[in-house]
Write a structure and sequence with these properties.
Length: about 300
């Protein structure tokens, strides 16, 4: 199996909210170290995700998830290693864990906290989740662009080496990032709106712009982002989105952002150990070895080193 870099999973949040599910080593969720080992050479981006309406202090909630991440690293020394660069990902013989952030309100309006996140090893951060926040507006409010603080955040993230993630952001927010960004940005876990008409997916114009900017889009396994049947996803749905993505954004845009442990329903790929099925399905659908290697990690590694 070719090494995989999954750009988004919500396993830390799921474990924090549901400790009875198990630990990062072994659990009843979609992602754990045992199954990552079975899949061979997997690096997952573990999102520090905060539901800002649930948390009196999003920053404190983020610190809690970071503590959970640190204790999981410590408990699994020799099996799990934190990575934060493309070189570290490639050189790491163990299961890899990279940190990302989801929900810019974690900063509580204080951009100095971006340096703290970077010191934790965070390399990817989204500007919004599903609510309006200090930085901008979510996908459900498509005509509103980034706020002034959001534009400042983009510059500061680029200065620190944190990749701007436009998943969950409004359409106008996407175009604000595009105009303002000097480095490639990504949509860590978003599909194609032409294939499934939901605001969380990317329009053809967004796919073209993202491709032109040298970014990537991670294919998301959430049933409702893959087809109109929001209870169940099929491999053929993922293949259809992958083809459309390649068509509009170019082959260099392709990446994987499973959204494991942030999604429900009957999944075509039930957990991180099942990725080979997708490789085979895409390969049968005509994706070349080069395209698949790009999708599995090379395209995302390119953005990490930009
Ligand atoms: Zn998400």
């Amino acid at each position: 199996m070719y090494p995989l870099l999954d750009l988004h999973c919500d396993t830390l949040y799921a474990l924090h909210n549901k400790p009875q599910a198990g630990t990062l080593l072994a659990n009843s969720l979609h992602v754990d170290i045992e199954r990552m080992e079975r899949a061979a050479h997997v690096t997952s981006c573990f999102a520090i995700f905060v539901d800002s309406e649930e948390s009196p202090s999003p920053w404190e909630a983020a610190c809690d998830l970071h503590s959970l991440f640190l204790s999981s690293l410590q408990a699994n020394e020799g099996r799990l290693r934190q990575v934060s660069s493309s070189e570290e990902i490639v050189d790491n013989p163990l299961v890899g864990a990279m940190l990302s952030c989801e929900e810019g309100q974690i900063l509580e309006g204080d951009l100095c906290r971006l340096s703290v996140l970077r010191s934790w090893g965070v390399r990817i951060a989204s500007l919004t989740w599903n609510y309006e926040n200090d930085l901008g507006y979510p996908h459900s409010m498509p005509t509103k662009g980034l706020k002034g603080l959001g534009l400042e955040a983009v510059s500061e993230m680029e200065r620190l080496g944190i990749i701007v993630d436009v998943s969950h952001l409004s359409d106008e927010g996407f175009f604000s990032v595009m105009e303002h960004a000097r480095k490639p940005f990504i949509a860590s876990h978003s599909n194609c709106r032409s294939c499934t008409a939901v605001s969380r997916n990317l329009s053809d114009e967004m796919l073209r712009c993202l491709g032109k900017a040298g970014g990537v889009a991670g294919l998301n396994f959430c049933p409702s982002f893959l087809s109109a049947d929001n209870k169940k996803s099929r491999l053929s749905d993922i293949v259809r989105h992958a083809k459309h993505m390649r068509n509009k954004g170019g082959r260099d845009i392709l990446a994987i952002g499973t959204d494991f442990d942030g999604i429900g329903g009957k999944l075509a790929i039930e957990d991180i150990s099942g990725m080979e099925m997708l490789w085979d399905a895409l390969s049968h659908a005509g994706f070349t070895q080069t395209e698949l290697e790009g999708m599995w990690r090379k395209n995302a590694l390119r953005v990490l080193s930009a």
